[in-house]
Automatic annotation (TrEMBL), chain A:
Protein's recorded name: VWA domain-containing protein
Source organism of the structure: Nocardioides soli
From TrEMBL, chain B:
Organism placement in taxonomy: Bacteria, Bacillati, Actinomycetota, Actinomycetes, Propionibacteriales
Native organism: Nocardioides soli
ATPase dynein-related AAA domain sequence ranges: 43-192
GO terms assigned for molecular function: ATP binding; ATP hydrolysis activity
Pfam families xrefs: AAA_5 (PF07728)
UniProt xrefs under InterPro entries: ATPase_dyneun-rel_AAA (IPR011704), CbbQ/NirQ/NorQ/GpvN (IPR050764), P-loop_NTPase (IPR027417)
Name this protein carries in UniProt: MoxR-like ATPase
Amino acid sequence: MTSGLVDRHISFLEALRAAGMSVSLAEDLDAVAALGAVDWDRRETVRAAYAATLVKKQSQRATFDALFDVYFPRMVGDGAAGQRDDADRVVDNAQALAAFRDQLVDALAEGDRQAMLDLAAEMVARFGAMPGRGPGLSSWSAYTALQRVSPQELVDRIAQALLGEGRLEDARVEARRRIGELTGLVEADARRRIAEEKGPEHVANVALRPSIDRIDFTAARKADLDEMRREIYPLARRLATRLTQEHHAKRSGPLDFRRTVRASISTGGVPLVTHHRPKRPHRTELVVLCDVSGSVANFAQFTLLLVYALRDQFEKVRAFTFIDHVHEVTSHFRPGADPGDVLAGLAASTAHAALWGRTNYGRALAKFEESYADALGPRSSLLILGDARSNYSDLHLDVLRRLAGSAKHSWWLNPEHRRHWDTGDSAASKYGEIVPMVECRNLTQLGEFVHDIL
Amino acid sequence: MPQPSTWFSSPDDAATRLAGSGYLADPATAITAYLAGVLEKPLLVEGPAGVGKTELAKAVACVTGAELVRLQCYEGLDEARALYEWNYKKQLLRIQASGDQSWEETHDDIFTDEFLLTRPLLTAIRRDEPTVLLIDEVDKTDVEVEGLLLEVLSDFQVTIPELGTVAAVRRPFVVLTSNATRELSEAVKRRCLYLHLDYPDAEREREIVTSQVPDLEERTARMLVEVVHRLRDLDLKKAPSIAESVDWARTLVALEIRDLDPTTIDDTLGVLLKHHSDREKAMKELRFAG
């Protein structure tokens, strides 16, 4: 085994494991068997064989694809296309840039994937090179290439080219989608080149983003937030199904004597199967109190949306938002309303939650006790969402103690990493002594928490 | 592999033959189906509802001339419904009829094939003809049932305490489908090949729709697929599935609609979208105010 193929295979698997995918030895062997069964003349075949044997969760597919591209690159260097070029061609000046952008518009309007791949590679080669001082020190930057060529400015030109019989708005949407695709290709090509220069392990460690359910709420980009929002409903559906199943599994109540005896008649009076009375399900009333100040607004939105999507599982849900003042937002959660509208409504009502606009947990808690103390009762659970950063103001710990005392259960969800608790103005452990505080940074943790409290 | 696979001879072969039965598989699906046949491993197919997961199993059975044995999973499915069950009533009758026969003899008598009711998993394993075993919606079952599947999926055998181990005469082509409402256990996943089916691209969807509804005009099909794709891009509670776009195509043919204008879309959108809020949102986003 000196071909290096086995080494490459094993280091690819190592990289997948490092990226958080659990690849077992059995799956490793399956992958080798699968590779033995297919032809290697097409890259996509190899990719599909690997994917079928190694990737068992769709959320890991993006990670897998990125690593596959790094370990089994589409081509080396500039590929066959690069060698054809004559040496005296100008690589990078204003005129070359303009010509390249024309080419790009044509290719994107055409929608030819191969052309887009080639152009993405060329774009990184010509406009994204970062020459180094010695061999192994040069690098490639997708960011520089994208800044130089700035395909975003080409939307209108592509849209014009696409504009057949459809409307201009549709053409623009399509143009933006294709540019997004190109951006992805450019980033992938830069990763490929860096991997070639510095070894794939280097790229696998730094250039990959975690899958969407592991991205921190506080560190998410706008595109990530949109994707997360789309994940909320599937997540709620999964949770609801799981909960129903688990409740049903635990359902067997006391023996139903009558049904058992009746059923036993068909087996000659031997009670082979026992029947049980159904258990009465108990449902909690949930009171959500959430910080909507800028730093944690995203987190609050997601949690509220998830709670809202799961409202069938609760007897009643009341939601309040605060910054330094409390405002009830329960009315925004109409049954059957579109989540987009709900979020817009919530954003618009944020103003009611602030008096001066500086987060003040103590004041908000006191106001809550003053105005809405009746919301909490022996059947209700209190859920507080926030980073416990109160701008060094009075924490009103006694108020929180009274609130927690009047509710059946209470929890505090903190979107910050545990290592940031108690730094700066964070009062995490002070509040955490009264109300159990749980770290909740991403969708996975959020889903787990909601599942556990139900 | 000592002998060539009995299922498909190559990925291309899989694609062509599946297409022959009206199932238009994309390259990844064809390769994975081929691998499932060659490696004799179960195939776990995941994806949203209505993208043709169950159809894939049916198509494989159809083109390879195998019989389809189907186990529909549901909550509360147990061993007795999935694997095998002793026919208690018949056994009781046998015991009562035995008269003064000694217990040992009766005991040996009542645990024989005659009193065994085979359920889908055991049936599939004992068949000596080619068999496609479809375990449908495996995520609907309880976690315990997954444990029960493990022996079948990895060794293709079933252990019946009274009879011993029944090993497969001929390994079936196993397809498990899941809507991913629940994460399946690592143990099950490890034993399977995995395929995620997603909504197809516009070109493939148009081919699927026209192959299922041949009466539909080319131009209408293109418009239909375009609308469906735009709907899927929206944030809907339930995105329209392939099955639903085929239904929509049938509706349009039945109503003899050739042009998709705002009014006709509004009239027939109920075929695609089953939530009121989705429908409102779709009309708003597609800007069909009328």
